[in-house]
């Protein structure tokens, strides 16, 4: 099985270890992982800013780069949602590209959904109380909710806790956190407080955007909660410093 | 109401710093969400009901002219009159005419969002009529001289303490001097004051939740019964309704009523659900002598023909407001016009213009919760994006955002250059963080770092590391 990995621009730039964790997990399924070098960003900032021409310009090469693969995996609910839900919308009026986008959408999965679908058997262990934050895209665009929890249940020694008001957005929202920093700050403050109140010592999520936001707030509050991408924990790769932590 | 939507950012900042408002919002938020959830969990066929409701609306919208004409014919057959108004001015003029002909002095008004939309109170007062709001929430904000901040709970932003103070300053009748401690006491006092108004009013104005083409009826739901009193006690009853409120049959209205009550307040059905059909008949014991319906377009025909058509399915339940984290943080007044929250962020720019309403469609993380809870399955995030698209196309997007987008796109379109820039940024920021793993402040990221740290990049980009790994 050959799998194309779309690493996402945030993982590439901010936290490569998530990409390597994804590779490890996929290789654990016996897959050969390919990272098409033409990829940059899925175009979400342009799409959500109403600049559809630029979004299409960015989507086309990515659609082509990922076209040869039967499976495309993305370690982000938000970027996977862009490929699965919004690329087909983006090319609604261009039949040829629309067809390509639909094919890509059908082959694309968010990482934890792909792992669950292919019956991943994990060998990770993690002693502690772990809270799972679902990104709004994973939860509502892709309906990925049970999969990460089922995978976490395979991790040895882990006790899972739920966050109150889990359905409320953390306030990241891509460019929203820059356009409306005050409101975003308020939302992430509520979210970070809920994470702390859950009693978790570790927070994970399938989306790095949310994690940078929530971790940033937790660190500002001097909280001891450690923050990792779901893939890092599932791959047993939590020896690296958590998000926003000093090197050790 | 003069829109201040363009000042959303300033409005929002004020709201975030208003401790009393924050207290009121926090309390309201949880209540609405929990009640709706319980009501929907208790009804397994909710999803089917939702699909049925949507189908009813879609069918009606596809044949809107037919059902509106049918409605008009039925109203006339029952002895009432329909007045068509394309603009708010025409709507107000129609109402004023009716009131003048009735020789009215005092107008009792039930809650009506379209009434706010056309600013009917201002028009009536300017023409010398006295208007009194009879819905408790509307009454409170009327005496506070404020616009509503929620479409079903207009005074949700007020605390009990604030309401008590308002009443103390205004209600000087004998017997109304006791201190108000509980909500029932507040309700009781308002009821005493309003009772006299109902009896003295010459004209009663209400909104309508639905209009029924089959029978020519207007349907209103309230939890206080004030709508019924406003409609039946005065000599003349005027219904204000926008054109998309019409549904074909009684049966259809009942489907939508079940969706409305559960989504709005978590009730199975509202306390008072009243169907008004025509004026009093010869053998009726009560009811108005005249029955008028003012049908208001105000941009809806244009919506029907364009990309925002699905918004016309809205039944004004307020669920999207109650579940929106942005509304929950800043409240309704920040949105700067009649309709707040996600539904308002779609409607307001359509009614006051995108120049004025520009910030609203951007004041959303597109988290999708509004669409998830909307009983009419309106794709609110999609419609918000459509506004953003128009805004970008019409060059209304702020220059700074445009440039940032253009600069980012320049690199993102050129993988090799992008890679080099990413390498530089990741390396530089990684070094700058000097093993701290995060930034407390960064000059170009002050919006972010005002309230949270910025996690630092690990150092080398994934693509660089991957290429090295696969070479060896
Ligand atoms: S958009 Fe939907 S959820 Fe919001 S008020 Fe209208 S019907 Fe209710």
TrEMBL record, chain A:
The lineage of its organism: Bacteria, Pseudomonadati, Pseudomonadota, Betaproteobacteria, Nitrosomonadales. InterPro entries: Cys_rich_dom (IPR004017). It holds the Pfam family CCG. Residues 3-83, 130-214 form the Cysteine-rich domain. This is L-lactate dehydrogenase complex protein LldE. GO terms for cellular component: cytosol. GO terms for molecular function: oxidoreductase activity. It comes from the Bacteria.
UniProtKB/TrEMBL annotation, chain B:
Keywords: 4Fe-4S, Iron, Iron-sulfur, Metal-binding. PROSITE patterns: 4FE4S_FER_1 (PS00198), 4FE4S_FER_2 (PS51379). Gene3D superfamilies: NagB/RpiA/CoA transferase-like (3.40.50.10420). GO terms for molecular function: 4 iron, 4 sulfur cluster binding; metal ion binding. This is L-lactate dehydrogenase complex protein LldF. PANTHER family: LACTATE UTILIZATION PROTEIN B (PTHR47153). InterPro entries: 4Fe4S_Fe-S-bd, 4Fe4S_Fe_S_CS, FTHF_cligase-like_sf, LUD_dom, LutB/LldF, NagB/RpiA_transferase-like. One of its GO terms (biological process) is lactate metabolic process. Residues 305-335 form the 4Fe-4S ferredoxin-type domain. It holds the Pfam family Fer4_8. It comes from Sulfuritortus calidifontis.
């Amino acid at each position: 099985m050959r799998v194309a990995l779309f690493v996402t621009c945030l993982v590439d730039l901010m936290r490569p270890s998530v990409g390597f964790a994804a590779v490890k997990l996929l290789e654990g399924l016996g897959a050969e992982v390919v990272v098409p070098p033409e990829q940059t960003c899925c175009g979400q900032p342009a799409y959500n800013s109403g600049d559809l021409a630029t979004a299409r310009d960015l989507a086309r090469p990515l659609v082509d780069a990922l076209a040869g693969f039967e499976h495309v995996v993305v370690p982000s609910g938000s970027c996977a949602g862009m490929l699965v839900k919004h690329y087909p919308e983006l090319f609604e009026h261009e039949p040829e590209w629309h067809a390509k986008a639909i094919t890509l959408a059908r082959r694309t999965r968010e990482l934890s959904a792909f792992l669950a679908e292919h019956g991943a058997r994990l060998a990770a262990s993690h002693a502690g109380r772990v809270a799972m934050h679902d990104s709004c895209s994973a939860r509502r665009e892709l309906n990925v909710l049970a999969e990460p929890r089922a995978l976490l249940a395979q991790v040895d020694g882990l006790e899972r806790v739920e966050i109150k008001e889990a359905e409320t957005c953390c306030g990241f929202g891509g460019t929203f956190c820059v356009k409306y920093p005050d409101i975003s700050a308020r939302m992430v403050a509520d979210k970070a407080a809920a994470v702390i109140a859950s009693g978790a010592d570790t927070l994970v999520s399938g989306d790095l955007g949310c994690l940078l936001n929530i971790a940033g707030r937790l660190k500002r509050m001097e909280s001891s909660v450690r923050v990792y991408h779901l893939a890092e924990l599932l791959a047993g790769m939590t020896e690296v410093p958590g998000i926003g932590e000093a090197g050790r | 109401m003069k829109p201040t939507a363009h000042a959303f950012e300033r409005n929002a900042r004020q709201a975030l710093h208003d401790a009393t408002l924050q207290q009121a919002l926090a309390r309201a938020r949880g209540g609405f969400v929990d009640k709706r959830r319980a009501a929907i969990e208790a009804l397994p066929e909710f999803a089917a009901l939702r699909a049925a409701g949507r189908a009813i609306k879609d069918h009606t919208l596809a044949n809107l002219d037919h059902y509106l004409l049918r409605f008009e014919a039925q109203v006339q057959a029952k002895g009432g009159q329909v007045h068509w108004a394309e603009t708010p001015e025409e709507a107000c003029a129609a109402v004023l005419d009716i009131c003048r002909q009735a020789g009215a002095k005092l107008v009792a008004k039930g809650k009506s969002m379209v009434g706010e939309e056309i600013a009917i109170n201002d028009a009536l007062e300017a023409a010398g009529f006295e208007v009194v709001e009879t819905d408790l929430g509307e009454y409170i904000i009327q005496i506070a001289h404020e616009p509503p901040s929620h479409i079903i709970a207009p005074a949700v932003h007020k605390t009990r303490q604030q309401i008590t103070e308002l009443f103390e300053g205004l209600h000087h009748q004998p017997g109304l001097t006791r201190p108000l401690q509980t909500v029932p006491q507040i309700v009781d006092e308002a009821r005493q004051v309003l009772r006299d108004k109902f009896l003295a009013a010459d004209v009663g104005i209400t909104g309508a939740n639905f209009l029924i083409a089959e029978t020519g009826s207007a349907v209103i739901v309230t939890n206080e019964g004030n709508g019924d009193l406003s409609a039946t006690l005065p000599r003349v009853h005027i219904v204000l309704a926008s054109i998309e409120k019409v549904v074909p049959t009684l049966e259809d209205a009942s489907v939508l009523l079940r969706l409305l009550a559960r989504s709005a307040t978590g009730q199975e059905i509202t306390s008072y659900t009243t169907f008004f059909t025509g004026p009093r008949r010869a053998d009726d014991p009560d009811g108005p002598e005249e029955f008028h319906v003012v049908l208001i377009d105000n941009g809806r025909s244009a919506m029907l023909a364009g990309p925002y058509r699905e918004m016309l399915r809205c039944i004004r339940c307020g669920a999207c407001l109650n579940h929106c984290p942005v509304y929950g943080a800043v409240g309704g007044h920040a949105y700067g016009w009649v309709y707040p929250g996600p539904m308002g962020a779609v409607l307001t720019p359509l009614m006051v213009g995108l120049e004025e309403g520009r910030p609203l469609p951007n004041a959303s993380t597109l988290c999708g919760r509004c669409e998830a809870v909307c009983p009419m399955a309106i794709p609110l995030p999609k419609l918000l994006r459509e506004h953003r698209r128009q805004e970008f196309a019409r060059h209304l997007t702020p220059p700074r955002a445009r440039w940032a987008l253009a600069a980012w796109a320049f690199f993102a379109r050129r993988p090799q250059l992008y890679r080099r820039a990413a390498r530089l940024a990741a390396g530089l920021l990684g070094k700058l963080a000097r093993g701290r793993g995060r930034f407390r402040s960064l000059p170009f990221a002050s919006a972010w770092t005002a309230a949270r740290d910025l996690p630092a990049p690990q150092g080398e980009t994934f693509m660089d590391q991957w290429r090295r790994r696969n070479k060896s």
